[in-house]
Amino acid sequence: MTRITMTALGASACLLLAAAAPSAIGTGTQATQPVQMIDLTDPAHIENGKLRFAQNCSYCHGAEGIGGKHKKLQCRDFDPDYLFDVISNGLESGSYFMPPWDHFSDEKRWELVGYISSLGLLDSCS
Ligand code: HEC
């Protein structure tokens, strides 16, 4: 990926973030505190997150987060707010780039958080 493409991606991501900001932050005073709106241990939400992960994330993070091109997400102990932040804003690591997923509703992003959290509690982790 060329630098020009990266810059264009960055710029459009900013525009998207700006457009999404009012609904995402509610009062506008707590931009860094995403509201956790679902029960992250609810099996129905975890199942939705699992499906969404398979469709959008496994390409880079492997089936069920086992790792692949990028980080393994199984058997990790993540802070839910950190997960929501990374999913919403994306992440750059060296020359690698994870796109933001802020086109998913807050609820859909929290379902992904619930699913990834569940990957830290698999039998195979202990
Ligand atoms: C184009 C590849 C790509 C896709 C698709 C992708 N990611 Fe990532 N993800 C990355 C990269 C690159 C990183 C930075 C860390 C690394 O180098 O592995 C990362 C990091 C993360 C992290 C932080 C891991 C840590 O150790 O702090 C989480 C959580 C994550 N991704 C979740 C997701 C979710 C959920 C999706 C789908 C909605 C997704 N990713 C889709 C490439 C991707």
From TrEMBL:
Identification of the protein by name: Cytochrome c domain-containing protein
| Sequence ranges assigned to domain Cytochrome c in this UniProt record | 44-120
The residues the entry assigns to the signal sequence are 1-26
Q: Please provide, alphabetically and separated by semicolons, the GO molecular function terms listed in this UniProt record.
A: electron transfer activity; heme binding; metal ion binding
Pfam families the UniProt entry points to: Cytochrome_CBB3
Q: Which InterPro entries match?
A: Cyt_c-like_dom, Cyt_c-like_dom_sf
- From which domain of life does this come? Bacteria
Taxonomic lineage = Bacteria, Pseudomonadati, Pseudomonadota, Alphaproteobacteria, Rhodobacterales
Q: Which UniProt keywords apply?
A: Heme, Iron, Metal-binding, Signal
